[in-house]
Amino acid sequence: MSLFWTNDHFATDQYADETAVFESYPDQELQLPASSGELKTITVRLADSDDQRNSARMLVNRRYAWRGYGDQHQIPAKSSHMTFTASSDEGVVGTITLGVDSPAGLAADDIFKDEIDSFRNVPGAKVCELTKLAFDADVSSKPMLAALFHIVFIYGYNEHRCTDLFIEVNPRHRRFYQAMLGFKPVGEVKTNQSVDAPSVLMWLKVDDIRKAIDAHAGHGQESSRSLYPFFFSEKEEQGIFARLAASTRDTIQAKSAYFAAKANDPASIPDTRS
Predict the structure, then answer these.
(1) pTM over 0.70, yes/no
(2) Residue 4 per-residue DSSP state
(3) How distant, in Å, are the alpha carbons of 3, 6, 93, 203, 245 from that of 40?
């Protein structure tokens, strides 16, 4: 896997009808093989603008509708959520959202709160979830999926100190997440009313992700269904995190202050649209 740094940055975040100016996030530009075998330039970035989130939402709704899950899904614009996209010249080809626990809880709490609470209530635990996953079948490949998941892991592990990762999936996709990433099913199959489909909660200990990366990352030729051999090497990961940490720490603090101020006194948020 080849990785290049780019200088393309975003300058603003837009939330609801307000616009706040934050520090920019660095893009990660990758040379990855697509499912066709050809080499494509894929840019992985944090969707930190309305336009980027809208592009992610369109992909989610297109792929969800194809599976019969509806086409009215929204991408959360909250300080507890970070949406990442993978883009090629054709547009957004993959997206995933990391949700970190907050007073509002996780999306999976809607039907799996009791199961998640058993982890959440452990002293020192911080639960998080992956949601709104969508990938273009014509472009996705193991290296691209691995790149997106690995960058999400870097955020969750280093910036948010997540200890337990959850994902809510259709039972027919359970084996994919077990084999590819090591997720384990938790509890019984239930019905997710938002997509009118059966759903199973899956869990992965974040420390186990770290161990799997350390053991297998950077060995993409391994004959395994796992994604971990296609994760970034240790050197690549260190470079990504160093660059992300330098550019995001002030951004995360600014977002938290923005939402806190908006909740306490919406009129105190300056209008930066003019």
Answers:
(1) yes
(2) E
(3) 12, 16, 12, 32, 27
